[in-house]
Specification:
The protein contains 6 helices and 16 strands. It is α+β, with helices and mostly antiparallel strands and 325 residues long.
């Protein structure tokens, strides 16, 4: 059954001289405030939300949920609580549906309004459309992060690889150059706090390989990334280099990036003959016009801390790609 989503955009309030700017929203990415009555939160609707939103993000070393959720009763949803960046608001109605309101009380803000007539319908709505609701919040968070990065990003023209490959990304200036061969780019951001073994890091790899057979692209992603790791990502000693973790099969999904068919792969990397490891996210984009595969990979090394939000930042950067025609 197909469902329609109503999207309402609200920007400045009033008109003319009565216009005023919305306050800035509060709350971190990948976190949602659920507005529902306490009895529902402690009952079956709340259980269903915790089940659907609490599904583990694939590709991470430790269990981490797709989204973190907290709850407030409708009576408490006022004043500064209404400024939350991401809100799932439950209301009673004869219609079982969801709608989307943007920038109502603050900016940027997304409020997903879920309506149902009783507890049974609330559970059914969450079960049937939970994935859809999660995607709404995730997509909005990607845009939120990208807008921040656009304000203070690296100059793409300063990297030979991006110029040679005809690519642009919105990459924040805190990333530093590791290697730029003209065909392979490696950038790194050091993570300063909460790391057990020295400074952790977020890393970006960008390169392209020939498109030989479209039917085998998904099957060869691991082989390609392992060959790149062996050539460009060395370990601390000879014979050590980054590979796909052999004990953990990556998950690959067909997606669309920059209007082109692509594959998103999530998994874990390790250093051959060493103990370093962590999660990665890989986007392999089919650029048929130039008969090539454009690859963006982000990987994180951050022992002792959760890594969901680090990988999510890399996802947002990857999805900012622009391929010059």
């Amino acid at each position: 059954m197909l469902f329609a989503i109503t999207i309402l955009f609200m920007n400045c309030k009033g008109d003319g001289a009565n216009d005023y700017v919305l306050p800035s929203s509060t709350g971190n990415t990948n976190r949602v405030l659920v507005v529902m009555k306490g009895k529902h939160w402690l009952g079956k609707p709340g259980d269903e939300i915790r089940t659907v939103f609490g599904e583990h993000q694939v590709g991470l070393p430790q269990p981490e949920t797709l989204l973190s959720v907290s709850q407030i009763d409708p009576s408490g949803f006022n004043k500064f609580m209404r400024n939350n960046k991401a809100v799932l608001l439950f209301q009673k109605s004869d219609k079982q549906e969801i709608s989307v309101i943007k920038n109502k009380y603050a900016a940027p803000q997304i409020i997903v309004v879920a309506t149902a007539n009783n507890e049974e319908e609330m559970v059914s709505l969450i079960r049937d459309r939970g994935k859809e609701i999660i995607k709404l919040f995730k997509d909005q968070d990607v845009k939120f992060i990208q807008n921040i990065f656009k304000r203070d990003k690296l100059d793409n023209t300063s990297f030979k690889t991006l110029q040679n490959l005809g690519l642009e990304f919105d990459i924040p200036k805190r990333y530093r150059l590791v290697e730029d061969t003209g065909n392979f780019l490696w950038l790194r951001q050091h993570l300063k706090s909460g790391i057990a073994r020295g400074d952790g890091s977020n890393n970006i790899l960008i390169y392209a390989v020939p498109l030989k057979d479209e039917k085998t692209v998904a099957d060869n992603i691991t082989r390609v990334r392992d060959s790149i790791g062996k050539k460009f990502i060395p370990g601390s000693k000879e014979g050590m280099y980054m590979i796909t973790e052999q004990a953990y099969a990556p998950f690959t999904y067909e997606v669309e990036v920059n209007g082109k068919k692509a594959y998103e792969t999530r998994g874990k990397w390790e250093v051959k003959n060493d103990f370093m490891a962590g999660p990665f996210i890989n986007y392999t984009v089919l650029d048929k016009k130039k008969n090539r595969l454009v690859v963006f990979e982000g990987f994180t090394y951050a022992p002792s801390v959760n890594k969901r939000d680090f990988i999510f930042e890399l996802e947002a950067i990857a999805k900012s790609i622009k391929i010059k025609e």
